[in-house]
Amino acid sequence: MLLIIGTIRLPPDRLDKARPVMERMVRASRAEDGCLEYSYAQDVLDPGLIRVTEAWRDRTVLDAHFRSPHIADWRATWPELGIGERNLVLHEAGEAMPT
Length: 99
What we know:
The chain has 3 helices and 4 strands. Helix 1 (15-30) runs antiparallel to helix 3 (69-81). 37% of the residues lie in helices and 31% in strands. The protein has a 4-stranded antiparallel β-sheet. A hairpin with a 6-residue loop joins strand 2 and strand 3 (49-56). By secondary structure, the protein is α+β, with helices and mostly antiparallel strands.
Protein backbone atom coordinates (compact mmCIF):
# COMPACT_ATOMS: atom_id res chain seq x y z
CA MET A 1 0.00 0.00 0.00
CA LEU A 2 1.16 3.53 -0.78
CA LEU A 3 0.25 6.54 1.33
CA ILE A 4 0.48 10.17 0.32
CA ILE A 5 0.33 12.45 3.34
CA GLY A 6 0.84 16.18 3.40
CA THR A 7 -0.60 19.61 2.87
CA ILE A 8 -1.48 22.18 0.28
CA ARG A 9 -1.99 25.85 1.01
CA LEU A 10 -4.28 28.40 -0.55
CA PRO A 11 -5.49 31.84 0.47
CA PRO A 12 -8.35 31.46 3.00
CA ASP A 13 -10.48 33.90 1.01
CA ARG A 14 -10.49 31.43 -1.91
CA LEU A 15 -11.77 28.45 0.10
CA ASP A 16 -15.38 28.93 -1.02
CA LYS A 17 -14.26 28.87 -4.64
CA ALA A 18 -11.95 25.89 -4.02
CA ARG A 19 -14.44 23.64 -2.21
CA PRO A 20 -16.44 22.50 -5.26
CA VAL A 21 -13.22 21.96 -7.23
CA MET A 22 -11.73 19.91 -4.39
CA GLU A 23 -14.97 17.98 -4.02
CA ARG A 24 -14.87 16.96 -7.70
CA MET A 25 -11.25 15.87 -7.30
CA VAL A 26 -11.99 13.80 -4.19
CA ARG A 27 -15.07 12.13 -5.70
CA ALA A 28 -13.29 11.25 -8.95
CA SER A 29 -10.23 9.94 -7.11
CA ARG A 30 -12.30 7.82 -4.72
CA ALA A 31 -14.02 6.23 -7.73
CA GLU A 32 -10.70 5.07 -9.21
CA ASP A 33 -9.71 1.43 -9.10
CA GLY A 34 -7.14 0.94 -6.37
CA CYS A 35 -7.98 4.06 -4.36
CA LEU A 36 -8.33 2.99 -0.74
CA GLU A 37 -8.68 6.47 0.79
CA TYR A 38 -8.66 10.02 -0.52
CA SER A 39 -9.48 13.08 1.53
CA TYR A 40 -8.84 16.77 1.95
CA ALA A 41 -9.46 18.43 5.33
CA GLN A 42 -9.20 22.07 6.33
CA ASP A 43 -6.94 22.63 9.34
CA VAL A 44 -9.04 24.06 12.18
CA LEU A 45 -6.24 26.37 13.35
CA ASP A 46 -4.94 27.45 9.93
CA PRO A 47 -7.84 28.10 7.49
CA GLY A 48 -5.68 28.15 4.35
CA LEU A 49 -4.02 24.83 5.12
CA ILE A 50 -5.59 21.73 3.56
CA ARG A 51 -4.46 18.36 4.89
CA VAL A 52 -4.23 15.64 2.24
CA THR A 53 -4.50 11.91 2.93
CA GLU A 54 -4.40 9.31 0.18
CA ALA A 55 -4.00 5.53 0.22
CA TRP A 56 -3.45 3.51 -2.95
CA ARG A 57 -3.23 -0.24 -3.54
CA ASP A 58 0.04 -0.10 -5.49
CA ARG A 59 2.25 1.97 -7.77
CA THR A 60 0.41 0.94 -10.93
CA VAL A 61 -2.90 2.44 -9.77
CA LEU A 62 -1.16 5.51 -8.37
CA ASP A 63 0.58 6.12 -11.71
CA ALA A 64 -2.80 5.78 -13.46
CA HIS A 65 -4.23 8.33 -11.02
CA PHE A 66 -1.45 10.78 -11.90
CA ARG A 67 -2.38 10.42 -15.60
CA SER A 68 -6.13 10.83 -15.04
CA PRO A 69 -8.10 13.69 -16.63
CA HIS A 70 -9.36 14.87 -13.24
CA ILE A 71 -5.76 15.33 -12.02
CA ALA A 72 -5.05 17.49 -15.07
CA ASP A 73 -8.23 19.50 -14.44
CA TRP A 74 -7.34 19.90 -10.74
CA ARG A 75 -3.81 21.08 -11.49
CA ALA A 76 -5.11 23.56 -14.08
CA THR A 77 -7.12 25.31 -11.33
CA TRP A 78 -4.14 25.89 -9.02
CA PRO A 79 -3.18 29.36 -10.30
CA GLU A 80 -6.77 30.63 -10.07
CA LEU A 81 -7.22 29.16 -6.57
CA GLY A 82 -3.84 30.44 -5.41
CA ILE A 83 -2.50 26.98 -4.63
CA GLY A 84 1.25 27.33 -4.52
CA GLU A 85 2.71 25.62 -1.50
CA ARG A 86 2.46 21.85 -1.67
CA ASN A 87 4.12 19.48 0.74
CA LEU A 88 3.13 15.92 -0.14
CA VAL A 89 5.19 12.87 0.78
CA LEU A 90 4.81 9.35 -0.61
CA HIS A 91 5.23 6.52 1.91
CA GLU A 92 5.28 2.79 1.33
CA ALA A 93 3.33 1.00 4.03
CA GLY A 94 2.86 -2.58 5.03
CA GLU A 95 -0.40 -4.23 5.89
CA ALA A 96 -2.95 -2.00 7.63
CA MET A 97 -3.49 -2.87 11.27
CA PRO A 98 -6.13 -1.56 13.67
CA THR A 99 -4.80 0.39 16.63
